[in-house]
Amino acid sequence: MDPVSAAIARLFGAPPAGLHRLQGGDLSDIWKVRLADGRDVVAKAGPLVIREARMLEAMAEAGAPVPQVLASERTLMVLEYLPESRPGPDSWHALGAGLARLHETTAPCYGWSVDYAFGDVAIPNARGGDWSGFWAENRLLTGRAMLPAGLVHRLERLAHRLPALIPAAPPAALLHGDIWSGNALFTAQGAYLIDPACYHGDAEVDLAMLELFGTPHEAFYAAYGRPQGDWATRRAVYQLWPALVHLRLFGPGYMGMVEDRLARLGA
């Protein structure tokens, strides 16, 4: 019996009736599973799925729309299966409303109880009360040993300017942490948040990530609202982190994205 079927058997008391590999992210393996009782579920394998399961549960407690975690063990998590559909204005509106509910849950400080990672890219989440310091040390400057020296020097200079570029003490909102359109699951009933990398921070971090590869439908902003003030600057600061992640994960093809955000910030 293959490892996924064996894990399903342990978790649900019987081996699956069917197992079909799904297209997933670049950093995990995903299957649609037909259980012995006829239910369809989704199984996701990876080294940190237990931490992801806890994040999904925290998001559910906040009232955000997420798939239900049915079971988990070591390197496998099982979620309810939600059939996808093409997104329209109503589902984009639902995404905006759901993200707003998530961000209404706040904490006394920034960060998370445990660290996380995107593949080989560590995501340190040490808790603290200094937002610009958190963003500098735990995001822009993390993994600096893996980056070119010239780029590190530019990031260090930018880090010193952060107090003038981003809010000093925004509410420590519960963040999805990796919310691009591919991590929004649109269904006939609305929109669900999947594949989180949660921590507490400025809610605009999620908005910047959602705009990294395109602009959400207007219905999203009708439900969530639009950022005010110098959003272009704050967005560039917050988009620099996922740009650096893509550079480290996928190579120099993403250097242009990094350079673009640095240029917008005069760095």
Summary of the model, kept short:
The chain is of the alpha+beta class. The chain has helices at residues 3-12, 49-61, 89-104, 131-140, 149-165, 204-210, 218-224, 231-250, 255-264; strands at 18-22, 29-34, 40-45, 69-73, 76-80, 106-107, 116-118, 121-123, 172-175, 184-187, 190-193, 199-201.
**Could you name the CATH class of the largest domain?**
Alpha Beta
CATH architecture of the largest domain: Alpha-Beta Complex
User: Could you please say which CATH topology of the largest domain applies here?
Assistant: Aminoglycoside 3'-phosphotransferase, Chain: A, domain 2
Give the quaternary arrangement of the chains. single chain
Description of the molecule:
With 267 residues, this protein is an alpha+beta fold. The protein folds into two domains: 3-80, Phosphorylase Kinase, domain 1 (2-Layer Sandwich), CATH 3.30.200.20; 89-264, Aminoglycoside phosphotransferase (APH), C-terminal lobe (Aminoglycoside 3'-phosphotransferase, Chain: A, domain 2, Alpha-Beta Complex). The protein is 41% helix and 19% strand. It has nine helices and twelve strands. Helix 3 (89-104) runs parallel beside helix 7 (218-224) and helix 4 packs antiparallel against helix 5 (149-165). The protein starts with a helix and ends with a helix. The mean pLDDT is 95.
